[in-house]
Predict the 3D structure of the following.
Amino acid sequence: MAWLWKDHTGVAEAAEITELARQIRPQYLTKCGSTYSSEWFFSKILHCLRTTPAVFDAAHSWVELADWAPAMLTGTEAPDKLTVGICAAGHKAMYNAGWGGYPDAEFLMRLDPKLGALRSRLPRVAHPIDRAVGGLTAEWARLTGLPLGIPVAVGAFDAHLGAVGAGIAPGTLVKIIGTSTCDIAVVPAGRELADIPGLCGIVEGSVLPGYYGLEAGQSAVGDIFNWFVNYIRPGGRTAGSHEDLSAATARLVPGESGLLALDWNNGNRTILVDQRLTGLLIGQTLYTTPAEIYRTLIEATAFGALTIINRFEEYGVKIEQIVNCGGIAEKNPLVMQIYADVTGRPMKISRSAQTCALGAAIAGAVVAGAYPSYAAAQHAMTGLKARVFKPNPRAHEIYRDLYALYRRLHDAFGLKDANGNLYDVMKQLLDIRNRVRK
């Protein structure tokens, strides 16, 4: 039975885990942004226990796909042979060597005795990607054409290996942009690093060995654009495609629609960590067009991206360059230009169209001894495309005004104690629209 990360049915269980940790194990929350998410390991398992106990009782244990695939390739699926990665364990299951690995049995038993009993059936140690879980089996050697016994590296999440394949290093933020977005940064493990509220984890070794891996992201990006095109169907069944809307959107300039949106159609992953938040579109009139709404949705995701960048830098993680990869970065130059204009930063694109696969290949190359280090492998195997999307100063100026309004909406709807007076927001959107149209 597989369970997708972006399912949020465990939101009540996530809140329960967060509250218990605040009461008796506050350290568990310090490395996962102060809030445990419904997208993660224990909230999903607890939800299964509560809603479908027969499935929970039938399962000996639970495993992340990133750990199961290397185990399958090497014939080490049996629970007593399974090698798990620090990437999945640290970012999703509150694993930290500083408190003995996974959350302790007493903590889990307070949630449910059966969850506490599961603790003894989880692996004792999680590893970074600089070691092999084993060698390729004869069956998989035959199916893949690879040599029998070739080393298979410890698994990690697609986005984290995508960051490796995009050449991540200190000062670089890698944005993997597709149906959702994952943002990855690294900081040398020896450097003092603050606990950053709202991040999806600060985990030593989760991206590159010897570095803290910092993960953030947005629960929906391309999914929001697909929702508008496929569910709202602004052009009916025969028109209104992404291509049509992108062409019409490209003729618009920032601010001329008078619209503003919140990019929470699948909740907010970073920095609010609240899956019960929903999307919002304001400023519509009887003359609002589909292209104006489409552009506004793109802009909303860019504002969400800027909020994440700002959070990194507010806590001392300097972002010196941004490298994008994934389907949208590869295929949609309009989105990349809007991101550049909103953030005021150049948007660079990874040379590889398959950075997640490339990062996995780099891990395999290092554990097999083809390269002496990840730095050497990245130097040889990664790069950037020549085209760089540079911010338009005039557009960025307008977006600064729009972002200030976005943050007011963001805080008013997303923060419990924020000043919620939004009386002038619609009027300011009209003022910006009128100024731009002149």
Observations:
- The longest strand covers residues 181-188.
